[in-house]
Each structure stands twice: as structure tokens, then as C-alpha cells.
């Protein structure tokens, strides 16, 4: 074989490799700038660098989403003059424009503009915030408390994972009575003048006499066989089934969903069914009443509006992910979120979308709390409490509370109070605490941290705080019911 023949054969052999050669190095390095629509624009950046195989990998730096060097799936390729990463998350597309990278981010194609930088941000320690005045009293109730407490007539009502439902004095934390339901409770009860209603994992909806705890009736929700996977350390599986719905009362009828995907209208006086509606998956969030409609979301990805009188479906909206956030009416908008990281405002009459926004990779677990055409809402991996305009989705302020803010914020004249859950090990820092924010500015007024305990993946507060008798009442994952001064 001649040298010329060998060279020709070598050229033929490497030709396919050259056709698939890696993208040039012009994108390699650190880039930082802004991303998002005008209503919610955040700082964001990437580092692009070659791996041992010669492929260019992208590493995300997004402080609002608590990512500091997160390796993204896939590799960066060159496609018709653009730098692209076509993996479903986060789906990048850039072109060079005047020395900058201009393009889109996420499947929703949010605009992004980046310039070269010498360094990228790193996570900083949690600041030393005032701790507030601490608990006024605390009482151990045995099992972990995921459920939000209801309060009425100087008594707090709450169930635990140990299967006992308690009535606790708001004055000093003494137990007034206890009802052995026998299975865990994960939902907020409803307390009325003479009764208290709650759902239990034994498949029953209970009505108890409020002053004594005597059972008045129980109704079969039909979901006693439903399984539940609580938050855990295997982050490839995000079932995280930690909540049950609160009964909603209107016109003498209780409305509540169940773990088998059914939704029930139950007569509050005698506990008999008025009607039942079936969805495609479990219902774990609260419903909301809007005139003649009752509206709720399901893990089957849909939000439903049902005629309260007949149980007939009025409309349904596909959100394309599990609906784990309770809907709320804020002005003329129905605010609801899902585990796909989308918060949206719907027309409650038709289900049509008014606006939608991304929570930067975080699921929406929290329920919106109305405030004069705006609302407060927590988040999951985003770790933020946000104050948002209900008309257009504009973010007015957003504050890091350093943990999963899954609950519903409680609002006083001057403060927004929310519990945060911590998790370890996890892909980002989450710390358990109770946090109070200034309503106007979003600045943290005080933060009461809850210490982690060895061997536990989850700690802190999953339950929402309740404001009653000048106190903040909240149950902890340590099995303790706390009363704080706001």
C-alpha cells in the first residue's frame, strides 16, 4: 500500500467523524445575564465546558432556583448556526449577537440574554436573622403533623400520623379531648359552631361534636385502600403524597375529594351523599366555591368545575401535570398551580387561561392567599414566597425562606408567615423553619429554625400556619403543636 493510498483511506475513515465533529469552542466559558418575561425576569447563567469525551456540557447557575453548577442532561450541539441543547429540560437555543448569547430557555422559550463573565455566583450561608420570640407553648402529640390546624372558640383542632385527632387549648396547649381515628390524617379539618369535620386515611369523612369529640357520623369516601408515599430521599421518584383535602362547606353541603379520584358532595347534617363525581387520579388538594360552581384539581392533570347542585361537569382544564395546589379565587382570576412548575390564572367561568408563568423548575404546592387583587404564595424547590399581581402575573417581590414552602401563607396586618420544610440528603439546601416576612417589602422579619434530627430525611414544617387568638398555631414534623407570637 502506498503512502498516498493510505492517506486516502484515512481521509475516508475520518470523514464521517468530521461531519459529526464537536461544536467549536466559541461558546466554552462562563456566561451570565437575565432570563424570563418582563413580569418575572431573573438572573441566570451557564458554564459551558468540554468533558472527557470532547462533548460540550452545560452547567446551570440560577440563584432564584437555587442551582449553582447543576449539570444539565444532553450536550450542546451546533444546528443551523445556533447552539442548542434539545433535552426536555431546560431546552436551550442560542446565537451569538454582538458578543452576547441571545436565545430562549425552557420548552416555553423564555427569552434569555447572556454576556461573558469571569465568575459565576455561589451559594452563600443563611444570614443571621432575628429568631423572633420563640414558642409561647408547645405540646407533643405523638405522630408527625402534616395537617394544618383549624381554630375556633379558643381551641385548635388537628390530626396526626399516629391516628389521633386532638382538640388543644389555644391558651396553654392542654389537650381538651382526643378522638382515636385509627389511621393517619393529613388534611386540615373544618371547624364550625357546633361540629368539626375531617378526612382520615381509613377512608372516612368524620363529623364530631366540637365541644366533646363525640362522633356524630362518618361517611365512606371509598378510598380506604389508597396508598400513600410520603417525601423520601430517592429523588428520582417524586410521588410525595403528603396531603389530604379540607372539607369545604356551602349551603349545608360538604365538598371534598378522595384518594381514589372521586369528589363528593355530602349533606353536613346527616352525612348522606348528594352526588359523586369521578376523576382519573387522586384528589389531594382543597376545593374552592365560586358561586354555583365548586372547583378543584386532580392528579390526573385536570382542574374541574362542577355544578354544586347537580354534580355535572361544567368545564375541565388540562394543566399537563399533577394538580397539587389548591385553587383560589383572587379578584376575577382562579389561581392554580401544578407539579410541572406552572402557575396560572384561569377564568373561573370557562377555564380559559388568562396568564401562566413558570416557577423556574419548582412545583407549585402552595395555595394562593388573596390580598386586594394580588396574592401571596409559597413554592417547592424555588424556596421562595412570592407576592404576585393576579391580573397579569407580575412578581412584585419574591423572598428565599431556605426550605420547601409547601403550605399556605398566613397573613396578618403587617406580616406573611409560612412554614418551611428541610430535607437531607437532597440536590439543594433545604432547611426547616417558621418564617415571618414583611408584607410590603418581603424582607424577613424573623426566622425560627427547627433543628434537624439524625436519620430523618424531612424536618421542619409542612403544615400551614393558622392565626388565632393573637397567636400563630402550626404543627411540626417532630409531632409537636406550637403556638408562636406573630
Any chance you could write out the topology, listing elements then pairs?
Blueprint: H1 3-19, E1 29-35, E2 42-50, E3 56-62, E4 67-71, E5 77-79, E6 82-85, E7 92-97, E8 100-105, E9 110-116, E10 135-140, E11 150-152, E12 155-159, E13 164-169, E14 175-180, E15 190-191, E16 195-199, E17 204-209, E18 215-220, E19 248-250, E20 253-257, E21 262-267, E22 273-278, E23 288-290, E24 293-297, E25 302-307, E26 313-318, E27 328-330, E28 333-337, E29 342-346, E30 353-358, E31 369-371, E32 374-377, E33 384-389, E34 395-400, E35 410-411, E36 415-423, E37 433-438, E38 444-449, E39 458-460, E40 466-468, E41 471-475, E42 480-484
Antiparallel strand pairs: 1-2, 1-9, 2-3, 3-4, 5-6, 6-7, 7-8, 8-9, 10-42, 11-12, 12-13, 13-14, 15-16, 16-17, 17-18, 19-20, 20-21, 21-22, 23-24, 24-25, 25-26, 27-28, 28-29, 29-30, 31-32, 32-33, 33-34, 35-36, 36-37, 36-39, 37-38, 40-41, 41-42
Amino acid at each position: 500500500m502506498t503512502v498516498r493510498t493510505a492517506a486516502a483511506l484515512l481521509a475516508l475513515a475520518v470523514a464521517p467523524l468530521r461531519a459529526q465533529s464537536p461544536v467549536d469552542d466559541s461558546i466554552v466559558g462562563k456566561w451570565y445575564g437575565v432570563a424570563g418575561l418582563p413580569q418575572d425576569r431573573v438572573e441566570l447563567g451557564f458554564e459551558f465546558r468540554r468533558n472527557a469525551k470532547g462533548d460540550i456540557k452545560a452547567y446551570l447557575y440560577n440563584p432564584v432556583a437555587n442551582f449553582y453548577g447543576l449539570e444539565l442532561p444532553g450536550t450542546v450541539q451546533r444546528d443551523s448556526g445556533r447552539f442548542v441543547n434539545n433535552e426536555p429540560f431546560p431546552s436551550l437555543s442560542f446565537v451569538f449577537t454582538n458578543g452576547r448569547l441571545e436565545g430562549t430557555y425552557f420548552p416555553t422559550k423564555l427569552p434569555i440574554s447572556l454576556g461573558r463573565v469571569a465568575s459565576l455566583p455561589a451559594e452563600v450561608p443563611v444570614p443571621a436573622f432575628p429568631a423572633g420570640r420563640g414558642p409561647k407553648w408547645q405540646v407533643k402529640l405523638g405522630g408527625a403533623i402534616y395537617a394544618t390546624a383549624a381554630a375556633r372558640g379558643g381551641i385548635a383542632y388537628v390530626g396526626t400520623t399516629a391516628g389521633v385527632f386532638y382538640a388543644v387549648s389555644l391558651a396553654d396547649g392542654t389537650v381538651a379531648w382526643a378522638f382515636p381515628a385509627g389511621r393517619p390524617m393529613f388534611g386540615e379539618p373544618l371547624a364550625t359552631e357546633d361540629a368539626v369535620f375531617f378526612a382520615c386515611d381509613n377512608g372516612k369523612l368524620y363529623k364530631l361534636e366540637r365541644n366533646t369529640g363525640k362522633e356524630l357520623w362518618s361517611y365512606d369516601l371509598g378510598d380506604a385502600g389508597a396508598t400513600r408515599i410520603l417525601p423520601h430521599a430517592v429523588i428520582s421518584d417524586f410521588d410525595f403524597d403528603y396531603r389530604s383535602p379540607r372539607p369545604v362547606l356551602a349551603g349545608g353541603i360538604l365538598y371534598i375529594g378522595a384518594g381514589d379520584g372521586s369528589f363528593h358532595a355530602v349533606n353536613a347534617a346527616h352525612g348522606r351523599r348528594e352526588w359523586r363525581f369521578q376523576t382519573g387520579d387522586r384528589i389531594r388538594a382543597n376545593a374552592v366555591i365560586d358561586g354555583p360552581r365548586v372547583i378543584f384539581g386532580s392528579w390526573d392533570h385536570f382542574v374541574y368545575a362542577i355544578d354544586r347542585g347537580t354534580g355535572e361537569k361544567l368545564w375541565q382544564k388540562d394543566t399537563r401535570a399533577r394538580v397539587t395546589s389548591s385553587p383560589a379565587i383572587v379578584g376575577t382570576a382562579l389561581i392554580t398551580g401544578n407539579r410541572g412548575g406552572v402557575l396560572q390564572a384561569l377564568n373561573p367561568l370557562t377555564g380559559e387561561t388568562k396568564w401562566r408563568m413558570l416557577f423556574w423548575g419548582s412545583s407549585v404546592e402552595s395555595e394562593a392567599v388573596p390580598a386586594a387583587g394580588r396574592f401571596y404564595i409559597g413554592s417547592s424547590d424555588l424556596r421562595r414566597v412570592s407576592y404576585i399581581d393576579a391580573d397579569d402575573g407580575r412578581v412584585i417581590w419574591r423572598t428565599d425562606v431556605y426550605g420547601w414552602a409547601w403550605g399556605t401563607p398566613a397573613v396578618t396586618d403587617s406580616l406573611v408567615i409560612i412554614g418551611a420544610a428541610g430535607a437531607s440528603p437532597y440536590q439543594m439546601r433545604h432547611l426547616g423553619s417558621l418564617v415571618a416576612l414583611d408584607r410590603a417589602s418581603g424582607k424577613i422579619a424573623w426566622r425560627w429554625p427547627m433543628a434537624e434530627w439524625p436519620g430523618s430525611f424531612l424536618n421542619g414544617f409542612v403544615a400551614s400556619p393558622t392565626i388565632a387568638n393573637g397567636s400563630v398555631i402550626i404543627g411540626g414534623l417532630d409531632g409537636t403543636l406550637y403556638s408562636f407570637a406573630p
